[in-house]
Design a protein that fits this description.
Blueprint: H1 12-27, H2 32-47, E1 51-57, E2 63-70, H3 74-82, E3 86-87, H4 96-103, E4 107-109, H5 119-128, E5 132-140, E6 143-152, H6 160-222, H7 227-238, E7 242-247, E8 252-257, E9 269-276, E10 279-287, H8 293-332, H9 337-349, E11 357-364, H10 377-385, E12 393-397, E13 400-406, H11 411-419, E14 427-433, H12 440-454, E15 461-463, H13 469-474, H14 479-500, H15 504-513, H16 518-525, H17 529-543, H18 550-568
Parallel strand pairs: 14-15
Antiparallel strand pairs: 1-2, 1-6, 2-3, 4-5, 5-6, 7-8, 7-10, 9-10, 11-13, 11-14, 12-13
Helix pairs in contact: 1-2, 1-6, 2-6, 6-7, 6-8, 7-8, 8-9, 14-18, 15-17, 15-18, 16-17
Keywords: Coiled coil
Protein name: Helix-turn-helix domain-containing protein
Domain GAF: 31-187
């Protein structure tokens, strides 16, 4: 067995100088890793031991691992850390380092070969030639954070003075580490405060910018501007090369910028929806915006709010204008002279054309729900016609659209104006002349009756004169005389059809509509030709007229037309 040798203690002055160096390094703001490395270097120099190391617990707190060392073989460090880590906790046989860590008391092992608790770790240590070990707790404030170990190849007997000096060195290092920790925490807080200040300054700048954007957009709403002005202002604020406002159907309401739409892609755009009464009324799309994305999003949100206000204003104005014109048309075409006179004065005050006009009555023959008439192609076209010059009185009256048109424009001119709105082939109109504002009611009734009788036929716009005998009958002042004439000629046939369930009037109408050909009439009515001949003889007998006489055939045709006019003018067709 080797005999322990006395250890030579380093002079105090050298200790003091080394501690001053360690203190300066701690004061210079070194990291904990740097101080650990400085501690093992200074400890090896001062203690005279062959090797020194700092051991710290792993993340789980169950093992001690070598984190800094001086003089140790790298292979030994890797072998201990990976294969033979020093286990912490309450075990039957703890290593000296583990015992120093858990107990907080220094452990001196003069000869590891004679230490029973060193069996597990003596293999790697003996392979490196280590004999003596001194393990001192390493503290940070009141907590033990690791151990400072000194190793020597020669056996060294326990030396109270040396142990005291190493413990003092460790305490000094612990203080330096605590200072470093506090300095790092302080630096972290300073950095955190600087980051918070920067964030606050950035937020303040964004808020100021946002307020400026809001102010500019609010000015747009308060200065009676339109969507075009809003699009221009918004494009400038977000630095967009191109910006457009589109409605829910994709129709462009306003746009600003000069970039070619074909060169733009959705990936280059920022967009936001415009909500009105909880529904999407429009969408704002900005292409190639150069403003900060967050600020651009804020600007578009502000713009969407202003856009909703402008759309609401325009809709409210349009609805008020539509109600005004609808009421005006209803009064002008009514049978009440006082209502017509008052309506004419309102129209003149609004600078609307009401004298020297003709009445155009239009109807969409397709299946259009009542709630959708205003938003149908014909409805949108009629609302847009209201803004032409001279300003027309144009509005909705029940299922019809009625316009008072300049007397100097013919049917072709009216058709050209209507077809600009792509209103479709199922829309037809009839034009009736009016002798003056007091004659508008009669002209409306004529045009409405003609539209119901034959207005769904080509061309798009027809005049009363285009309807022949029907047109002449419609122009008669006393429609009761027309109805009486129809009853005199067709009354007996109508009575027969009612009592005997015959189809005499239908047969007569079909026979005359097909050039008085019995064979064609039979095909149309799906009966035998002899049946047609029998019905025709019955018609002649009941009416006392002959289908072989041109004058009697004219009477039949006029009576049928008069009957159609009476049906078209029934109260159910139009309430006034």
């Amino acid at each position: 067995m080797s005999k322990p040798i006395p250890h030579e203690v380093t002079p105090t002055a050298v200790w003091i100088a080394a501690l001053e160096l360690l203190a300066r390094q701690a004061g210079a703001g070194s990291s904990s890793e740097d101080l650990h490395q400085r501690l093992v270097a200074v400890g090896r120099q001062l203690t005279g031991f062959d090797f020194c190391a700092v051991l710290l617990p792993d993340e789980s707190g169950t093992q001690l691992l070598i984190r800094a060392w001086a003089g140790l073989d790298t292979f030994y460090v890797e072998q201990i850390n990976s294969r033979n880590p020093l286990t912490l906790g309450s075990t039957a046989r703890q290593s000296p380092s583990s015992r120093a860590y858990t107990s907080g008391v220094s452990v001196w092992v003069s000869d590891i070969t004679q230490h029973a608790d060193f069996t597990q770790w003596s293999g790697p240590a003996r392979a490196q030639g280590y004999r003596t070990l001194l393990a001192v707790p390493l503290r940070a404030g009141d907590q033990i954070v690791g151990t400072f170990n000194c190793y020597n190849r020669e056996v060294i007997a326990p030396d109270p003075q040396l142990r005291h000096l190493v413990e003092a060195l460790t305490d000094f290092a612990s203080a330096a580490l605590e200072i470093t920790r506090l300095r790092q925490a302080e630096t972290g807080r300073v950095n955190q405060l600087e980051n918070l200040n920067k964030e606050l300054r950035d937020r303040q700048a964004r808020d100021e910018r946002s307020q400026e954007l809001h102010r500019r957009l609010t000015d747009v709403a308060l200065t009676n501007s339109d969507l075009a002005h809003l699009a221009h202002e918004c494009a400038q604020m977000v630095g967009a090369g191109f910006l457009k406002i589109v409605d829910e159907s994709g129709f462009v309401l306003a746009q600003a910028g000069s970039d070619s739409v074909e060169d733009l892609t959705p990936a280059d755009s920022n967009s936001t929806v415009v909500l009105l009464h909880g529904e999407v009324a429009a969408r704002i799309q900005a292409f190639g915006a150069t403003l900060d994305p967050d600020m651009a999003a804020r600007a578009l949100e502000h713009a969407a709010t202003v856009c909703a206000l402008l759309l609401l204003r325009d809709r409210t104005a349009a609805e008020a204008e539509a109600r005004f014109r609808d009421d005006l048309i209803g009064d002008l075409c009514s049978g009440d002279p006082e209502r017509r006179t008052a309506a004419r004065q309102r129209a003149l005050r609004a600078n609307l054309l009401v004298d020297e006009v003709q009445v155009v009555v239009m109807k969409d023959q397709s299946e259009v729900a009542a709630a959708q008439i205003d938003n149908s192609p014909l409805g949108r076209r009629m609302r847009s016609i209201s803004s032409r010059r001279p300003r027309l009185v144009c509005g909705r009256l029940g299922d019809y659209w009625v316009a008072l048109w300049p007397i100097n424009e013919g049917a072709q001119d009216i058709a050209a104006t209507l077809t600009q709105g792509a209103i479709g082939s199922r829309v037809h109109a009839v034009v009736a002349p009016a002798g003056g504002s007091e004659d508008l009611a009669r002209a409306f009734r004529m045009a409405r009756g003609a539209l119901e009788l034959g207005g769904s036929q080509a061309p798009l716009v027809r005049t009363i004169e285009d309807l022949g005998v029907v047109g002449l009958l419609l122009q008669l002042e006393d429609q009761r005389a027309v109805a009486s004439f129809s009853d005199r000629v067709l009354g007996a046939l109508r009575q027969s059809d009612l009592e005997r369930s015959t189809d005499l009037i239908l047969t007569l109408r079909t026979y005359l509509a097909h050039d008085c050909r019995a064979d064609v009439s039979a095909q149309k009515l799906f009966v035998h030709k002899n049946t047609i001949s029998q019905r025709l003889r019955r018609i002649e007998k009941l009416t006392g007229l002959s289908l072989a006489s041109p004058s009697d055939v004219l009477q039949f045709s006029a009576a049928l037309a008069a009957d159609d006019i009476r049906s078209a003018s029934a109260p159910s067709a139009m309430s006034e």
